[in-house]
């Protein structure tokens, strides 16, 4: 990069920082995908998300750095991939994963700077001292459905937080509203439906959420995404998910109305995204695009920003911490640990010359029994996935296993019946060490090009970039599966991969 380019970028960066930055509102879906009109889904009705998108910059190349609930939330809140922050898997119950002690979350950094922090809804990360918020209304104090799906209760919590904030000299705030929709619940409370679509609906015995007006969908009129089998159970499953999308959407509308009624809309940066992809085959817990490609909108109150426009810039959840810090004119206590970049310049203009940029992903666990570490690099054209435990079958998580979609795939496979799906269960379970896809020619990631002579240079370039990122972020798995990492004591204290002689 020339000094002329660096100067231009510096000027754009300075112009993108508001002189009196005030607040940030982060809206997070739970296992949400592109089920909304803003991303051209013509069936699901999401008027509030669509309205927010029209006031925002819409990201068409936004990606999670991991496709699992707790690790993704930790990455969003720390700006570091799961292998760097230590939240390798789920936080709750027997899984018991926590971030490393010296990790700095955005809530702790902002809190020390005098910015009030709040979290409403699903927390699902630990330890508490790392992810401490001034105001918390989460599953640690209340039933998860009450704080994550009861949009009337969420509205009241948001109102309480904003009122308390205004009563304390109107200090700047960071508020994260972490919805539990459209996460599955059939494995825990099947009486409420696969996605808790009956909970709070007003049906007999289901309770009533006063502000939710359920929308129901006809299963045989849904446009299926390519990664979902075209079967009746899968269509019923997706219709149930769409109903809970309506609850999420109406909840977003309620939260934004509270912000507006409090007179804080013109002082607040609003971000909407999801932690990872939907709980469907090839999606959540996978590093295929359905698992890591995410919706994202950013609405800025600043003058001159782009609204109802699309950016195709490659974007990662790891960019959110640098973005929030720059919004508040703050620096990270350990800036060298961050590999993301601020997105604020994008709110004003698209880069005129976009290089072959890339995003990276890292997954080690989901549940404690799901030891299947994967590392990936994705550019606009190519995706390279490294499956470190490729000799094991790909693991299936509990709530997806009992879902109608997976049970139908499993039963048809066991009965030697055809499955109208773009994969077979055998190929889904058994994956090669390396997967290389040309996303321009193969957007469904169906044809693995690894090993083809014509792709040798592409593989070497991508694998070198991926390895460099793993080294920069100090991935403890970076020598696997063919070596052991020797990081202290020998070799002048230079981390070294020692061969295993496989």
TrEMBL record:
One of its GO terms (biological process) is heparan sulfate proteoglycan catabolic process. Keywords: Glycoprotein, Hydrolase, Signal. One of its GO terms (molecular function) is N-sulfoglucosamine sulfohydrolase activity. Residues 1-21 form the signal peptide. Coiled coil: none annotated. Belongs to the sulfatase family. PANTHER family: N-ACETYLGLUCOSAMINE-6-SULFATASE FAMILY MEMBER, N-SULPHOGLUCOSAMINE SULPHOHYDROLASE. This is Sulfatase N-terminal domain-containing protein. It comes from Anopheles coluzzii.
């Amino acid at each position: 990069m020339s000094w002329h380019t660096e100067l231009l970028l510096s000027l754009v960066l300075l112009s993108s920082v508001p002189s009196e930055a005030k607040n940030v509102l982060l809206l997070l879906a739970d296992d949400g995908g592109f089920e909304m009109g803003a991303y051209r889904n013509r069936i699901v009705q999401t008027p509030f998300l669509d309205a927010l998108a029209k006031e925002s910059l819409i990201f068409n190349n936004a990606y999670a750095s991991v496709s699992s609930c707790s690790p993704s939330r930790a990455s969003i809140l720390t700006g570091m991939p799961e292998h760097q922050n230590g939240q390798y898997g789920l936080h709750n119950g027997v899984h018991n994963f926590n971030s490393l002690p010296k990790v700095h979350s955005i809530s702790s950094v902002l809190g020390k700077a005098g910015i009030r922090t709040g979290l409403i809804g699903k927390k699902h990360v630990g330890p508490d001292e790392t992810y401490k918020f001034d105001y918390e209304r989460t599953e640690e104090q209340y039933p998860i459905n009450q704080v994550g799906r009861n949009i009337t209760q969420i509205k009241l919590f948001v109102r309480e937080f904003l009122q308390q904030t205004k009563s304390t000299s109107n200090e700047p705030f960071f508020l994260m509203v972490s919805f539990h929709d459209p996460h599955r619940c059939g494995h825990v409370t099947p009486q409420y439906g696969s996605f808790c679509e009956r909970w709070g609906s007003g049906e007999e015995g289901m309770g009533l959420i006063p502000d939710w007006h359920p929308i129901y969908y006809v299963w045989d009129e849904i446009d299926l995404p390519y990664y979902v089998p075209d079967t009746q159970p899968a269509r019923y499953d997706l219709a149930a998910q769409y109903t809970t999308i309506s609850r999420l959407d109406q909840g977003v509308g309620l939260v934004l109305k509270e912000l507006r009624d409090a007179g804080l809309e013109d002082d607040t940066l609003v971000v909407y995204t999801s932690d990872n992809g939907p709980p469907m085959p090839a999606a959540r817990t996978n590093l295929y695009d359905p698992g890591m490609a995410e919706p994202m909108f950013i609405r800025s109150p600043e003058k001159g920003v782009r609204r109802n426009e699309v950016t195709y810039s490659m974007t990662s959840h790891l960019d959110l911490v640098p973005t929030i810090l720059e919004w508040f004119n703050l620096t990270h206590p350990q800036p060298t640990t961050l590999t993301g970049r601020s997105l604020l310049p994008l709110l004003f203009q698209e880069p005129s010359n976009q290089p072959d940029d890339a995003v990276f992903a890292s997954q080690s666990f989901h549940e404690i029994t799901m030891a299947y570490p994967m590392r990936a690099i994705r550019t606009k054209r190519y995706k390279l996935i490294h499956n470190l435990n490729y000799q094991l079958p790909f693991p299936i998580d509990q709530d997806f296993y009992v879902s109608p979609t997976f049970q139908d795939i499993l039963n048809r496979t066991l009965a030697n019946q055809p499955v109208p799906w773009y994969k077979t269960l055998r190929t889904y379970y058994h994956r090669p060490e390396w997967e290389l896809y040309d996303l321009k020619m193969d957007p469904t990631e169906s044809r693995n090009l690894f090993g083809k002579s014509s792709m040798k240079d592409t593989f070497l370039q991508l694998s070198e970039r991926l390895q460099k990122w793993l080294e920069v972020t100090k991935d403890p798995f970076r020598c696997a599966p063919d070596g052991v990492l020797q990081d202290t004591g020998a070799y002048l204290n230079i981390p070294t991969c020692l061969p295993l002689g496989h």
